[in-house]
Amino acid sequence: MDFKISCALLSAACFIALPLSAAAQTSARGGVPDLKVEANCKATQEIDKSLTEPQSYEACMSDEQTAQQQLGSIWTTTPEEIRTQCYAEASAGGIESYVDLLSCIQMNGFGQPSAPASTLRGASKNRNKKQSG
């Protein structure tokens, strides 16, 4: 009986804490979360050396900054549940990416791209997947 109660309390705590932790990641001004993309762009540069079209650190950072700017114009009009879900996906595994955050929001039907999404690679977890179209 005590084990079942403990599990129920733990589940409830996780259910409450996840949205709060995502909300806590938003910037102090209530805008786009502050993501740490620099280390991932450095890692991306190392990984990409073996590719036929490697991406430089500078190009990765430029993509991430472009995605961050695009997010700035749509963040407050995107429903909180979508922002929370997409933040969790864009920062999963300790790899944070504005490109992933923007792509997730766009795939949920908000903030349609002003430029084709396939042009932004950045530190996205999906950057090396073959693009369709």
Low-confidence stretches: 6-24
Shape: elongated
Helix fraction? 40-55%
Rounded to the nearest angstrom, the distance between the terminal CA atoms is: 56 Å
Query: What is the number of helices?
Result: 5
Structural features, described:
The protein has 5 helices and no strands. Residues 6-24 have low confidence and may be disordered. The longest helix is centred in the first third of the chain and has 23 residues, at 2-24. It is elongated and about 40 Å long. The N and C termini lie far apart (56 Å). The protein has helices at 2-24, 38-48, 57-74, 80-90, 98-107. It is mostly helical and 133 residues long.
Summed up:
The protein is 55% helix and 0% strand. The protein has helices at 2-24, 38-48, 57-74, 80-90, 98-107. The termini are far apart.
Features:
single chain; 133 residues; mainly alpha
Write the layout of secondary structure elements.
Elements: H1 2-24, H2 38-48, H3 57-74, H4 80-90, H5 98-107
